Amino acid sequence: MNFNDYIRNIPDFPKEGILFKDITPLLKNNRAFKAAIDALIEIYKDEEIDYIVGIEARGFIIGTPMAYALNKGFIPVRKPGKLPYDKYTASYDLEYGSSELEIHSDAFSKGDKILLVDDLLATGGTTKASVDLIEKLGGEIVGIAFLLELKDLNGRDMIEGYDIFTLLQH
Ligand code: AMP
After folding, report:
1. Could you say which DSSP state residue 41 is in?
2. How many A from CA of 149 to the centre of ligand 1?
3. Does the pLDDT value for residue 90 go beyond 70?
4. Ligand 1 probe mutation, 20, 126, 151, most atoms within 8 A of CB
5. In whole numbers, what is the pLDDT of the chain averaged over residues?
6. For residue range 127-154, what is the model confidence (pLDDT) as tens digits?
7. Which of 2, 61, 104, 140 is the most exposed place for a label (fewest CB within 10 A)?
8. pTM of the full predicted structure?
9. For residue 104, how many other CB atoms are within 10 A of its CB?
10. Separation between Cα atoms, residue 52 and residue 146, nearest integer Å
11. Are 47 and 142 in contact (CB under 8 A)?
12. Residue 96 pLDDT more than 70?
């Protein structure tokens, strides 16, 4: 299975100069989607994990089947104004623009072991903001998993010291 056959490059989206990695062909193909999730869960099947935290929106698509397969609960990190209860907010810079992310203040307990999941590691800003939110709640990040890493953007530098796994590297 060559997962790269199912990643579509869209130049200049959503802004000029950005090469957007479209994962919808992978999600649409039952074998590619299953094989990608299976490869990710294989990495973490023996890891001690309390919860999987996924980042809106494509982190939900990757993180929830992982949580289901690993028999863990799923916790969303969401874009502003979506979470209904008490929450913490973190600001971050994107490859294109800036934004904020939020997590419920009671999402998990201090000391819980967290696997953080998103679809793609670009500059690392989104992940770093999510790491900050998890650590504000006292979570212990046991791993950070991505479908795809854009190596030239050096996102790993933003989240140095954490156990990072990326299924594909572009
Ligand atoms: P970053 O904070 O720069 O690491 O950006 C990561 C987030 O933005 C991920 O949630 C991705 O879904 C999205 N993203 C950033 N750059 C791209 C890209 N070139 N193609 C597709 N998604 C991207």
Report:
1. H
2. 9
3. yes
4. 126
5. 96
6. 999 999 999 999 999 999 999 999 999 9
7. 2
8. 0.97
9. 18
10. 13
11. yes
12. no
Which residues are 100's β-sheet partners? Answer: 91
Tokens of 79: 């874009």
**Cβ atoms 77, 16 nearer than 8 A:** no
47-169 — its CATH code? 3.40.50.2020
Give the pair of three-digit tokens for residue 33: 């989607």
3-state DSSP assignment of residue 109: coil
Task: Tell me phi and psi for residue 150, to 5 degrees.
Answer: -95, 100
- 123: which DSSP letter? S
In single-letter form, the type of residue at position 85 comes to: Y
**Which two structure tokens, joined as six digits, stand for 144?**
């950070």
Candidates 101, 42, 87, 99; CA nearest to 69 is: 42
Closest by CA position to 120, among listed 87, 155, 85: 155
H/E stretch holding 102: strand 98-104
The domain limits of the chain are 47-169
Q: Quote the ligand 1 centre to 122 CA distance (angstroms).
A: 5
- The answer to whether residue 95 scores a pLDDT higher than 70 is no
pLDDT at 98: 83
Structure tokens of 116?
């953080």
Structure tokens at 124: 């690392």
